[in-house]
Structure formats: C-alpha cells, structure tokens
C-alpha cells in the first residue's frame, strides 16, 4: 500500500463505520419534519375558519403520525447502537429514556390541569407550549451530549417556535408549529444531509 | 525514522485488513467496545480472517479482547487500547509526513 492508498482506505472505512454506528439524523429529522408539517398543518386547516375536515379526523391522523414517528425513532435508536458496549451506549439509553420520562410527567401534569377545569380554549396552547419547551430542551441536551451545534441550534429554534405558537393563540398556533416547527426540522435534516457528503 | 530520514510505518497497522480493523475500532467512543459479530459485519470479513488479524493486533497490545456473558450468552468484546489509539495516531501522522516528502512515497 502506498501512503495515498492507506489514507484513502482510512477515509472509506471511517466513513462507513460512522454511517453504520453513529446515528444519521438526516432521515430521523426529515420524518419528524414531515409529521409536524402535515400533522399540525392538517389540524390548522380543519379548525375554524377553514374547517376542511372534521377536527377529530385531523387529530386522529396527527396522533397516528406522531406515534409512527416515535416508534421509528425508538427502533432507529436501538438499532444504531447494537453491538456497541460502554459509556456511549449508556448515554444513548439514558437519553432515550429521558424523552419517555419527561413526556410521561408532562402528560400527567397537563391532563390534571385540564381535569381541574382549565379553559377549553387554552388546552391546545397548553399542549403546544409545554411539549415544545420539553422537545426543545431535549435537543439542547442532545447538542451538549454529542457536541453538535446544529442539534443545539434546532433546540433553540423549537423553543422559539413553542413560545411563538402560544403568543399567536389558537388556531394560529398550529400554523406556527406546522410551518416554522416542521420547517425547522426539515432545514436541519438538509444541513445534516449536505454535511454527510 | 529510518536511515534515509523517512518515517517508518508501523508494520502491525500497515496491512490492509488490520488497518481497516484499527480504523473501525478507532471510530468508537473512548471506553467503548464492540461485539465480534458486529465488527465482522462492519468489515465484511470472515470470522477466521478477523480472528487472525485481531490476534496480531492483540499481541502488539493495540487491541483488547474481553469475553463476557450477557444473559448467559457468551459475547466477545473488542476495543482499541490506549496504546493502539496512540499507534494509529502515530501511523496517520507518518503517512502525512511521507506525503510531504518529495519522491514516490512508497513505504
């Protein structure tokens, strides 16, 4: 092997290992971006004044989309770490569980507030505000854990979208979530895709 | 350094198969190890071939091999040692130095 061949071999093999072991967030972010764009978009156009379809149909479709994306994320996370043992696996598992634990807690708090008589108009704002803060925070944490400024930046963007959606009020909060939130994920996905080249 | 002033390439690493093994292991996070079958799959090597090269790397102290049990199933875990990581770093540095030197660059 000449030094050039050695260097080429190092580049090829490290690229392949990185692609197979390390997570490739481009696809994952694209899935979430589309779910946000179409899910929240559907709710927005189904709410008055547009009322394109019954709101409950839109809500069911969105929930199905989110459940699918969550399942995909979980499978994806478990698959990418298979065969690897050690600190990074522990960090990955703790990160995955953090999503479940945090959203479990948030669901308990929000449903309790609703049952205690929260104004019905405020319910969508409560959900979009709190769940976006939490999602954004998890992306901030991911950015810190894997030293990814892009992931951290996405976290900042999601928190900004969450705040903006509450300030916009219903039903415009869904428009903000769809276009700015979903769009943010899609832009981040594109940046990861370009970087991986 | 050899007599003509060119850096020597570590013969343990400077072989196609062992270089690929070293690169794959160096891509893991510090302190992380990988199971034998997963490593085999990443490298497209037969078990026999991979074992042979791992043994040479282990003899040089570059690779650590641990046998453990997970849920009563035996697993073989492979990791790059600190020494192996340093040797790989030294090897890539030597490659770059060789490329800076005029000449055909063969080692």
Walkthrough of the structure:
The complex is a heterodimer of chains A (197) and B (107). Chain A has 197 residues and is mainly α. Chain A has seven helices and one strand. The radius of gyration of chain A is 19 Å and the shape is elongated. The model of chain A has no long low-confidence stretch (mean pLDDT 90). With 107 residues, chain B is of the alpha+beta class. Chain B has one domain: Arc Repressor Mutant, subunit A (Orthogonal Bundle). Chain B is built from four helices and three strands. Chain B has helices spanning 16-26, 36-43, 47-59, 82-100, and strands spanning 33-35, 63-70, 73-80. Chain B has a three-stranded antiparallel sheet with strand order 1-3-2. The longest helix of chain B is centred in the C-terminal third of the chain and has 19 residues, at 82-100. Chain B starts with 15 loop residues before the first helix and ends in a 7-residue tail after the last helix. The A-B interface holds A 1-4, 6-7, 9-10, 13-14, 16-18, 20-22, 82-89 and B 9, 14-16, 19-20, 23-24, 26-35, 37-39, 41-43, 77, 79, 92, 95-96, 98-99, 105-107. Strand 1 of chain A pairs antiparallel with strand 1 (33-35) of chain B, so a sheet runs across the interface.
Descriptive terms for the model:
heterodimer, A: 197 residues, mainly alpha, 7 helices, elongated, B: 107 residues, alpha+beta, Arc Repressor Mutant, subunit A, 4 helices
Largest interface: A-B, 24 and 34 residues
Q: Which percent band covers the strand fraction of chain B?
A: 15-25%
CATH top level label of chain B: Mainly Alpha
Q: What number is the mean pLDDT of chain B? A: 87
Query: Helical proportion of chain A?
Result: over 70%
Spatial shape of chain B: elongated
What sequence of helices (H) and strands (E) makes up the elements of chain A? HHHEHHHH
| Total discrete domains of chain B | 1
Reported CATH architecture of chain B: Orthogonal Bundle
The N- and C-terminal alpha carbons of chain A lie at a distance of 26 Å
SS class of chain B:
alpha+beta
The amount of beta strand of chain A, in percent, is under 5%
| General shape of chain A | elongated
Distance between the termini of chain B: 12 Å
Mind telling me the C-alpha Rg of chain A?
19 Å
Note the main sheet of chain A.
none
Rounded Rg of chain B:
16 Å
Strand order of the largest sheet of chain B: 1-3-2
- Enumerate the spans of chain B where pLDDT stays under 50 for 5 or more consecutive residues: none
Query: Which range best describes the helical content of chain B: under 10%, 10-25%, 25-40%, 40-55%, 55-70% or over 70%?
Result: 40-55%
InterPro entries (chain B): WH-like_DNA-bd_sf, WH_DNA-bd_dom, WH_DNA-bd_sf
Domain Winged helix DNA-binding (chain B): 24-99
Protein name (chain B): Winged helix DNA-binding domain-containing protein
Pfam families (chain B): HTH_34
């Amino acid at each position: 092997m000449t030094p050039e061949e050695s260097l080429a071999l190092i580049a090829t093999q490290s690229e392949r290992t990185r692609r197979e072991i390390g997570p490739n967030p481009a696809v994952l972010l694209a899935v979430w971006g589309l779910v946000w764009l179409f899910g929240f978009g559907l709710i927005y156009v189904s709410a008055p004044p547009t009322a394109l379809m019954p709101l409950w149909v839109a809500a069911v479709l969105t929930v199905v989309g989110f459940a699918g994306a969550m399942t995909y994320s979980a499978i994806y996370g478990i698959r990418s770490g298979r065969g690897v043992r050690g600190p990074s696996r522990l960090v990955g598992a703790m990160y995955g569980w953090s999503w479940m634990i945090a959203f479990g807690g948030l669901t308990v708090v929000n449903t309790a507030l609703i049952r205690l008589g929260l104004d019905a108009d405020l319910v969508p704002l409560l959900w979009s505000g709190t769940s976006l803060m939490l999602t954004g925070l998890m992306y901030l944490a991911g950015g810190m854990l894997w030293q990814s400024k892009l992931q951290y930046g996405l976290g900042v963007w999601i928190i900004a979208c969450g705040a903006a959606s509450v300030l916009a009020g219903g039903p415009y909060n869904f428009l903000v979530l769809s276009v700015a939130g979903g769009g943010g994920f899609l832009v981040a996905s594109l940046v990861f895709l370009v970087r991986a080249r | 350094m050899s007599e003509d002033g060119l850096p020597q390439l570590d013969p343990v690493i400077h072989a196609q198969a062992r270089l690929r093994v070293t690169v794959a292991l160096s891509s893991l996070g510090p302190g992380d190890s990988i199971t034998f079958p997963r490593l085999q799959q990443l490298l497209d090597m037969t078990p026999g071939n991979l074992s042979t090269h791992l043994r040479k790397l282990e003899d040089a102290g570059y690779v650590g091999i641990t046998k453990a049990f997970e849920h009563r199933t035996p697993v073989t875990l492979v990791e790059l040692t600190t020494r192996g990581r340093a040797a790989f770093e030294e090897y890539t540095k030597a490659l770059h130095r060789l490329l800076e030197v005029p000449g055909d660059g063969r080692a």
